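ERR on first pass: missing label on line 2. Operator R.T. fixed the label and resubmitted. Corrected input:
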Amino acid sequence: MISAPVTIREQGSPTCAFPIAWHDVKMDMRPIPWKHGLVILLTSTLLATACGNDDSSTPASQQPAAQEPTAAPEATDAPAPAPDGEPTSVVIGLEQELTNFNNLTAGDSLLAGRQVIRAVWPACVRTRPDFSFEPYFCETLPTIITDDPLVVEYRLRADANWSDGTPVSSDDMVFYFENCNDPEDDCAGTSGFDSAELEVVDDKAVRLSWPAGQPFVEYILLFSGPFPPAHLGRDWSEGFRTDAGLGAGPYMVDEYNPGSDLTLVANPTWFGEGPHIDEVTFRFISDVGNLPLALENGEVDVIYPQPQVDLVAQIDGIGGVDSSITFGPTWEHITFNTATVPEEVRRAIASALDRELIVTALMRPFSESAQPLGNRIFVNGQAQYVDNTPAEFQQRDVAAARAVLEAAGWVLDGDVYAKDGRQLSLRIRTTGGNDRREQFQELVQNQLAEAGIRITIDNLPGGEIFGPVFGSTNDPPGPPGDFDLVIFAWVGGPLPATSALQVFGTGSDSNPGAYADDRVNDLLAEATFTLDLDRQAELLNQADALMWETLPNTPVYQLPFFLAWNDKIQNIQDNPTSESFTWNLEKWELAD
Amino acid sequence: MLGYATRKLLISVVVLFFATLVAFLLVATVDPIAEQRVFLLSQPGGAEQVERLEASLGLDKPLVERYGLWLGDLATGDMGTSTDNGRPVTTLLGEAIPVTLRLVIAATVVSVIIGVAVGVVSAVRQYGAFDNISTFLAFLFFAMPVFWLGAVLKDLGIRFNDWWGRRIFFTIGEQSPRLDADFWGTWADRAGHIILPALTLIAIQLAATSRFQRSAMLDVLESDYIRTARAKGVPRRRVITHHALRNALLPVVSYTGLTFGTLIGGTVVTEVVFNWKGMGRLFLDSLLNGDVSVTQGWLLAVGISVIIVNLLTDLTYGFLDPRVRDG
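pass 2 clean. output:
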């Protein structure tokens, strides 16, 4: 609820004290008429239950408020921005609750945690919605000192301080590094740290160096998971589970009621512009069905639910609410098992597929702007994205698909092609129970049937499919590659070179289709050693163009993110990277 | 009365012991590391890791020993910690129980008062317009899915707010976060949060209570002593309120006691629909997260609450009907 909020309650003060002194009450011992008695009983029941135990609102942690608000509470008022000079607030409904303020531990690296802590703890660099970078707590983007061996300097802003006045310093970065530079550490991302040496330059700067010939091309994003304060001397994994300790960003945590809500207040030591809203409260609402009505009723001002077509339509009909659909870095595709699906069949499938129709059926109900994805390394929305789809696969061409098969010796046998006594019958698998993917499968099945390719659906419930697809390191264990076609999603990112090599490189554990193309290997390997990001993108796009020839997979669409907000909030913008929608919280403002 | 109360108390202690056994066995017979076991056993050296994991959780001990250890911890107030968020189970229960109690008490008191009134009037004016309408509504509400009724009430609440121009009804939570209002502001906020979920429970409870009361009242009204009272010229209103209703309330007392106990653990759907962080929500989350300690603690807490409410019901019944305590 956007409101002119509320005086911050003194700890321990009563919230439901009866306002009548005993001496004000005239005792009357006459019998109470039954009608009056009923009214008294009903009223006192509501009073008793309404003024029940208030323990659940006891904050797990409290920091001094940045300001001392003075306005009287108007909880039942319709949403309205506060008049000038009075504190302002916004309530965000989150489906998931953070499990630890330290989002960098392996078990607690949840998006919900990042959405909260992004505005509280420091990070060197911030990723913009277009996947480009901007310095955040660092003075500049990390600076390359030498190319080979790669040495990079990370220099924090001189005016970056924690909310207790202690400077955000190299000690904090050392704390981060020491807890993340060993693969055995409890750290969500040890990559890059595990092969680096750290040198402290001064109070505000450290340098990381990598062995000669082994540059870490994703160096820009190191020290950019929001990191905790070192000088509190707390344990990395458990020390910040329910208490953020301090803030350094535009906000700091003021009150956290686990299971219920969490409130940030403006941090007076923040060096940057803003924040323009004094309090931001996150309410944890685990059932997505509750979000639209809560938004309509003004109980929350911003929601970020998993998009569903009916939910998007429901919110579109609410007055005073704006929303956006953003197609993000998660993209779904059909991966081929190259051991069982020969190249001519993969090409025939790519020709016979109507990707436009699949996008229309599955993604355009969310937004007319949805497009088939034409790249398997960069996603639409990134500056480096190029639609590399060759002309032959731009439009569905069943005749071309049949011609490719017949040129390779496949002969039509009834409705299905056959060769050497074997019918062209393939198994497609996906995560059973996922309606969207199951619809996707059925569309593929129908489209390929028209090209003489029989598709049978063979799913396992939920994530169980990844056991037979990826092999024994998954649960349940099994030999990898137990599929012909499989539908699942990959997640892209602003620096995709290393992950592209893992997904498409010959012999990689993350390459379940056993795809192998030496030309692609060479380009991807070169990209992982190329520090010039423009040149790196060029190499990656060349690799993707080659992959359209040999087809490890067919990318089809990106998944959407859905953000809806009270239209009084200005400057709110979704960020489809891992920064998420709270990335610029300090810029949010309330309209007059 | 003292002997009757002591007897009931002793029986409750025995039932409590069995409740701990059932709560323990229901959860202890499920393998809490099933997923990790499958994964670890597929890894080199996984068998040793599984053994270590079992030892750390006490799974290598016989069931009887584990039960004894669990009871020992219980006796010291230690119900373990949540594997989901690392918080003590007693803390989680301590937060959830008052929330659910608030809802259940409000719903039960209101539904009993209205249900008794509706049941009495229906019985006194059997097959009249009021009786027919209340019977129809009772069956209608009784058949209504809770989640649907909750959703409809939420929507109606929002329409009312729009029409009124102020937010009277809230659709999520037990209270507004960061609220610091005066007495009436706090009261209005809490009432605005409790009305819709309580109405959801009331509508369904009311249906059953009114039918029980109507049936009990009809039985009593046909009794000889009622006929005698009327024959003696006792006014009709006094016969109904002093002679009939007092006896006809007894079955409703039993029913209400049983319902109240089960409601403490049975408000899952209402709490999910209205985003209340009570016992129902806690149970659902513990099941979804495979949080063994919380599930075990929850089962025990609900078991204890049912036992306590049943004991209180028995004592009330004994107080109201001397035949029970003498038998």
